[in-house]
Amino acid sequence: MTNTTKTQPGGDVRLAGISKTYGSFTAVHPLDLTIPQGSFFALLGASGCGKTTTLRMIAGLEEPSGGTVHLGDQDVTALPPYKRPVNTVFQSYALFPHLDIFENVAFGLRRRGIKSVKKQVEEMLDLVQLGEQARKKPHQLSGGQQQRVAVARALINHPKVLLLDEPLGALDLKLRRQMQLELKRIQTEVGITFVHVTHDQEEAMTMADRVAVMNAGRVEQLGAPADLYENPQTTFVANFLGTSNLIQAEVDSRSGDDVVVRAAGDKLLLPASRCAVPAQAGGKVLVGVRPEKVGLTHADEAGSIPEGRNRITGRIGNSSFIGVSTQYVVDCAACPDFEVYAQNIDRDARLVPGADVVLHWNPAHTFGLDAAQDIDAGVAEGEAA
């Protein structure tokens, strides 16, 4: 690929105290956010969380109620959309139906009065792997191909930032997964900043270098996908990104680098470094562990569990075989609907509803959250998305 498709360095996207209110409703509370140059950045959250409004303020399609938008060293807060070095790709592609693919991609160049467009358009179509489709009309392409045309049409203008507003929302699941990898490949090749709005946790985790999880107009947590998943700082993030078992517990004591907690008579260890709140003896804490980190052993085999693991006893309420794994829901005194995802390698035929079991996991996989939060925050949003 030639350098003609590379953009000039554009600097970070910096939002300083940016906010948006509509009458008495606050869509985005004052927000400070830096999106590093050249990164694939995702704004993730459920409907109404403020993510699209934030994107539209970067694009200039919404006027902020307060704060500033900087692209590199340039304050663009007062600039109209067409004067900002950004382009936006929407869910609804917005291709011109009467123009073929070549002319759709060439549109921005022709509008700027550029006469010789052939080389640039062909390079863009090659980038999105649609060189052979150049003379087809949009209705002759699949949804995924149309989306790639929309990306090519935006990138040919050499924006410093490409904004993507739920770009894969209209595609079926299999095509969406293909396009996630495709967009990541394109972003890596062109090297410009992509800011991607989505409600789909898997999509954000698959594509983005950094993710801002938004809730009710605020950023709940910002970080790399793996860090958000492994070290959630709030119950909303713990529940919205995948599934978490959250156990109400009381701090008992300290043991080296671990906090000892008690939950319904069970003693559990929690690394102090993974506790989002100070752990004071007698204080309350929510102890969390992801379902795939937990082992499930029939009560008759409890003696085979290695020493040093956290363990809780319970009874299997129900199980679901889903091919690669079996998902169990276990009724425990400490947590009534404790979920376990067990890979289907050596399945124990005794692990059926009604069986008494021991749940066990490495204490290092435990995290601690503030018990004053709503334990179910983010659950409904995560399921809906």
Describe this structure in words.
This protein has 385 residues and is α+β, with helices and mostly antiparallel strands. The chain folds into 2 domains: 3-230, Rossmann fold (3-Layer(aba) Sandwich), CATH 3.40.50.300; 244-384, OB fold (Dihydrolipoamide Acetyltransferase, E2P) (Beta Barrel), CATH 2.40.50.100. The protein contains 9 helices and 20 strands. The chain has helices at residues 51-59, 101-111, 118-127, 143-155, 173-190, 201-207, 225-230, 235-240, 379-384; strands spanning 13-22, 25-35, 40-44, 66-71, 74-75, 86-90, 161-165, 193-198, 210-215, 218-223, 245-255, 258-263, 266-271, 284-289, 295-298, 310-321, 325-332, 338-343, 356-361, 367-370. The strands form 4 sheets. The protein has a 6-stranded mixed β-sheet with strand order 6-7-8-3-9-10, sandwiched between helices. A 5-stranded antiparallel β-sheet has the order 13-12-11-14-20, with no helix packed on it. Strand 11 and strand 12 form a beta hairpin. Helix 2 (101-111) runs parallel beside helix 4 (143-155) and helix 3 crosses helix 4. The longest helix has 18 residues, at 173-190. The chain is elongated, with a radius of gyration of 25 Å. The chain starts with 12 loop residues before the first strand and ends with a helix. 40% of the residues are buried. Mean pLDDT is 91; it is low at 1-9.
